[in-house]
Amino acid sequence: MLFGKPAAKPITWVPDTKIMGEPEFGRWRSRVRGAPEILGQVPCSCLAEEIATPGKGQIKALINIAANPALSVPDSQNLEDALPLLDCLIAIDCYMNETTRFAHVLLPGPSPLESPHFDELMWAWSIGSASKWSDQLFDTGEDYVPEWEILARLGWLCAGNNDADFNFEALDDGWFTTMCHMYGRDPETTLPLYDHGGPERMIDLQLRMGPWGDRYGEDPDGLNLQKVKDAVHGVDLGPMVPNRLREVIGTPSGKIELAPEYILSDLPRLKKALDRDPDAYVLVSRRNIKSKNTWMHNIKVLVKAGNRCTLIVHPDDATELGLTDGASARVTSEAGSIEVPVEISDEMMRGVVSLPHGWGHDKAGTRLSVAREHAGVNSNLLAPGHFVDKLSGNQAVNGIPVEVVPA
Predict the structure, then answer these.
(1) Under CATH, which number does the domain 272-406 receive?
(2) Which terminal CB of the chain, N or C, has fewer other CB atoms within 10 Å?
(3) Is 61:33 a contact under the CB 8 Å cutoff?
(4) Neighbouring residues of 26: CB distance < 8 A, sequence distance ≥ 6
(5) What region holds the Molybdopterin dinucleotide-binding domain (predicted)?
(6) Of 105, 113, 83, whose CA–CA distance to 363 is shortest?
(7) How far apart are CA 46 and CA 296, in angstroms?
């Protein structure tokens, strides 16, 4: 088996189950629905009911960071109805979108072109290893506050601290000290090596202590952030590497656990699912490369090619259902009903229809002029809040039973 070797090991890769043990599930349950916790999380559809249901533990405040859950989570109508009930909604976003229109405070972060960028996550799943730093293209105004500083102050206040006592350098040094321990460095000898803090210091630590790093001078040919910055087109570190299975697998046994009891115990439910009506239509989601998330619909160059918000139907199914290409169909699930233009294509298998993620930009109170011209419909209105993959705790957005008729 082949695996990449990302130059900067993502922080989420640092914990090792050989040391910490296998993750436990169901340590607690959500207040209203009783959904079991999985890896510290419950399904996103729980959020609406946790806001709207009075009682001890009711969610009264929310910090929303560059997200649009009022449009992009399943059963989104319930969440849209719940957001105005919050005592405090703080949003960090460039846009006043379907979610941030409810915010009591909207803190505008910079655009992607006004911030430098270093990707640590995607290289972990790539067929090759590389590293690249991208400088910001446009200068920001004098009153500009980086997102990481906004988040640091919000974190300080959410911990119950007084704003007058806020010490940014101490907070930044504290997190960097924690990272030093995570990456096997002595913070007392590492902190004095820097005359600056913030994300660049953290990235430098990740690069230097990564598989290609200079380990703070131990390997003079190794990487550090300055070397990556100096390589304008990035640093190519070669293809995936074989014989690394023992490095990558972190289970206590050191093996790939193909049949853990946690999954085997769910097989009876799987067998029942196989007995469902084979003639029923099911809805699956999709994403286009130019419209993966809701914010991309407000960029003119990405939506100029025409309507991408269509219901894709197999030709034989279209004939059976009386649908024609370009005409509208009504799609109904137990959660809701929408009308959408039909696109007939043999790329879709029989019995399955597909709607794209993230459309439905027709809400009052937003400031998305381009997206409103290409509003589309919100497929998440069809996703029932209880439709959840029980093993992972993830909300299911595929395989939703639907009825399809000409509109």
Answers:
(1) 2.40.40.20
(2) N
(3) no
(4) 36, 37, 38
(5) 281-399
(6) 83
(7) 26
Angle at 34 between CA 33 and CA 35, to 5 degrees: 90
What is the per-residue pLDDT across 77-117, written as a single tens digit (0 to 9) for each? 999 999 999 999 999 998 999 999 999 999 988 888 899 99
Whether residue 189 has pLDDT greater than 70: yes
Which band of pLDDT confidence, cut at 50, 70 and 90, is reported for residue 120? confident
* Structural domain spans, the chain: 2-166+233-242, 272-406
Instruction: Kindly provide the residue ranges of all beta strands, DSSP E only, lying in 186-320, ordered along the sequence.
Output: 235-239, 241-242, 281-286, 311-313
pTM, two decimals, is 0.87
Using one digit for the tens of pLDDT, what is the confidence trace for 4-18? 788 987 665 555 555
In a 3-state reduction of DSSP, which class is residue 206? helix
Q: How far is CA 303 from CA 49, 69, 175, 371, 373, in A?
A: 34, 21, 41, 8, 10
State the CATH class of domain 2-166+233-242: alpha beta
Residues recorded for the chain: 407
Cα–Cα distance for residue pair 71/156, rounded to 1 Å: 29
- The two tokens of residue 253 are 């046994």
Cα–Cα distances in angstroms (integers) from residue 292 to residues 286, 296, 307, in the given order: 9, 7, 14
Distance CA 368, CA 221 (A): 49
